[in-house]
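User: My collaborator sent over this chain with a note saying "see what the structure looks like." That's all I know about it. Can you take a look?
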Amino acid sequence: MKVTKEKLDNSQVELNIEIDNEEREKYLAMAYRHLVNRVAVPGFRKGKAPRFILENLIGKEALLKEAMEHLIPETYSQAVKEQELDTVGDPDIDIVTLEPVVIKASVPVRPAIELGDYKSIRIPVEPVEVSEDAVSNYLDNLRERQAVWEPVERKSQSGDRVTFDLEAMVEGKEMINEKELQLVVVEDSKVLTPGFSKSILDMAGGEEKEFTLPLPEDYPQKEFGGKECNFKVKVSGVKEKKLPELNDDFAKSLGNGFESLADLTNKVTTDLRQVMEQVNRRKHEESVVEAIVSASTAEYSQYLVEKEIDRIIDEKVRAGGKNSVESYLEDFKKSNEEIRNEVKDEAQKRVSGSLVLNKIRENENIEVNEEDVDREIEKLVNISGGNQDQVKSSLGSAQIRASVKNSLTLQKTLKFLSDIASGAEAGEKDTSAEKETK
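Assistant: Without extra context I'll predict from the sequence alone. Here is the result:
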């Protein structure tokens, strides 16, 4: 086997592999042994037909095709090993000629990364300030969760919960016939169809009403989409939302050891600060990585971008609760090409960032040990809320442990860079918070 190598742009290598006749004959003999046991040859028991008889029956091309099924992957692997290539993806392989056998393979290799001076980058961490409005909004949300619905003897108002029987007919066909439905009526609600919620405002228990509204073109029941619908509503009750008073009793009712509203307010303030600090830390890390990528040079194959595009689309499909890319695209009325073009920039950003971070991790020998992985898995088990033994068993596989280790290593690398950029690692004093308070 003769192999020549040519370096292409974007971290790709082209291999030209020429197979000598002796090597070619070895794979033809292998192909014969495979086929002679599968092909029925008249006049011979299966597996006993001579090679020239089998070749005359199925044709030389069929035998050669079978030989290439084994020859191509094995000789390609041998060529990669011989040339000491660090490949990162599958090759594009073309058969140039069959006599002699010449194969051309283009394969992406590990990208060339030239890092900028990442230790000189300085980006301050934004100071965190928990506003009174943020605390107030959080407490209001807690009150909303503890609210109760109380019956009222009046006409419904915006925000009330209305209980009603509903009949809906479209062109003489029954679309809905339900009893004791409940709906929080809001004027601009689009439940059932735009205008329905508004139409049952100002109705009291015992009142009936009929009205007609158009259904949207994309109505879930397609046969009714875009048509006029006649609604018949009979209200059986109206309830209004009662929020608890924001006082010491409310704080105590939540449990968790709160003795007063002041205790609750302090805890809310602390929790909000922690969340804001985490958000700020993530933003800071993203800014630092962007600055390092901008100062570095990363040459990589389009293959890596295409694989990252696949991952991003898969994330979108799962986040959208879909079972396939096709159903996701149908919902958003987009083609596969359109969605791939939309996420291409994000994919390139991810690839560049990942390559640069991996290079820094190698340079700085940033690693996590198995004890770190054990602690993280134990943490995941404790917050799982399910059968802990079962969860622990599922998280103990080599694949999951490797994923957890990679995640922890990435976090450690990001913290290392964030600390440098904020001056924390070098013991530099970050005065940005002080300036904000003066």
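A starting point for your reply to your collaborator: Residues 148-242 form a domain with the Chitinase A; domain 3 fold (CATH 3.10.50.40).
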